[in-house]
Amino acid sequence: MTHARSERAALCDLLDRLGPGEPTLCAGWDTYDLAAHLVLRERRPDAMPGIALPALAGRTASVQRALKAKHPFPELVGLVRKPGGVYRLSFLDTAVNTIEYFVHHEDVRRAQPDWAPRELPADLEDLIWKRLSGMAKMMLRRSPVGVVLHRRGGGARSVVLGGAQQGPKVEVSGPASELLLFCFGRQEHSRAEVTGDAEAVERLRSARLGV
């Protein structure tokens, strides 16, 4: 099973266990909202543009609400469990959904009071670092301070520069998975270590990061 499929399955198992109305790290969304978002993303391409384009966000939100009204929560989770549309093709599912489902799985896990970090397979950490290395500058584009990402583990220590290039730099260190969550705007729930000038660190921790 690919990592995209295993993260999808684990997320759906967790959603089934928790039920609707439980918190997530996605601002304003509970577990029911997240399930509807994932179904929309794969099965309603007509409503997808609003995920990225604020001018179309109203229609996307309307379709998401309609999916919740039409499908009971277990039914929505069942739709998430089966890759839809082009993502039935395993290579596309891997290319697009490995990071998506890893992050959303952690969005649900880390919103629960008893969560603890997982030890991920080495090849998944490697894949996450590869993707993060290509996405970091975009994800950190709104950072008010310079950022240096240091990956720990995986043999080599790698560095990516992002954020403001002038002024103080903040170092964010940890496994690739924790760095990814930090850069996706989950700073408060990432176990990455953040060091540097105290004011710069605080500005980075409260910044709006992510895609």
From TrEMBL:
It comes from the Bacteria. InterPro entries: CHP03085, DinB/YfiT-like, Maleyloyr_isom. This is TIGR03085 family metal-binding protein.
